[in-house]
Specification:
Helices cover 50% and strands 11% of the residues. By secondary structure, the protein is mainly α. The longest helix has 29 residues. It is elongated. Keywords: Plant defense.
């Protein structure tokens, strides 16, 4: 079951990558995507092999079910607590990410950004467990980043992409405040400043909401 979930995650990530890379010209200007290097052809071959192997295992399970007279059971409902990420990371926990960190820093410090757009958006995309949060933490706490940006903010989004909720987290305000006031406070907090805002653990694939 877990292997099947992992397989679906791989396909979903690859599909998300395809959608983002083929998005309209306007969005391509605004959002820059960071992927670890991967080969499309190699991905296809790997997926075919995984599907065949998974199919064989499912067939074997069906045979065992018949032989041993297994019965279907409804699994118990479990309540899972959502993960809450933060910006802190111990340097000793970050191993072998220097090249990816350097590439991200180059994107952050890129001086060729269209000034008219004012905001540069970089997305780190990949399947769960690849260390995307750790990489973002590694960059967020870099000394050059601390000196370059006047203001930094880390917000854990998780499953529920609530624009107002995210905004109130950014300004550290009460969620009962009206949206107009939230937008005003956001503008006052960030306007005229060079800032770095990290939205971590985003599962929503609607690029319009990111922008």
């Amino acid at each position: 079951l877990h292997d099947a979930d992992d397989l679906f995650d791989d396909f979903n990530t690859q599909e998300l990558r395809r959608q983002v890379m083929t998005t309209d010209h306007k969005k391509t200007k605004k959002v820059r995507i960071f992927f670890s290097s991967s080969n499309q052809l190699l991905f296809s071959f790997k997926m075919v092999g995984k599907i065949k192997e998974l199919g064989k295992r499912i067939e074997a399970l069906n045979v065992d079910k018949t032989i041993f007279n297994f019965t279907n059971r409804t699994p118990e409902q479990r309540v899972f607590k959502q993960r809450e990420t933060h910006s802190f990371v111990r340097e000793e926990e970050v191993i072998g990410r220097e090249e990816e960190k350097r590439e991200l820093l180059e994107l952050l410090f890129d001086t060729n950004i269209n000034v008219k757009e004012k905001v540069s958006i970089i997305s780190i995309i990949g399947v769960g467990g690849l260390g995307k949060t750790t990489l973002a933490q590694h960059v967020y706490n870099d000394k050059e980043v601390q000196q370059h940006f006047e203001l930094k903010k880390w917000v854990c989004v998780s499953d529920d992409f609530d624009v107002k909720g995210i905004a109130t987290k950014i300004i550290e305000s009460n969620n009962n405040v009206e949206m107009d006031k939230v937008q005003l406070e956001l503008r006052e907090k960030f306007e005229g400043k060079r800032y770095l805002l990290v939205l971590d653990d985003i599962w929503n694939e609607d690029g319009d909401l990111w922008l």
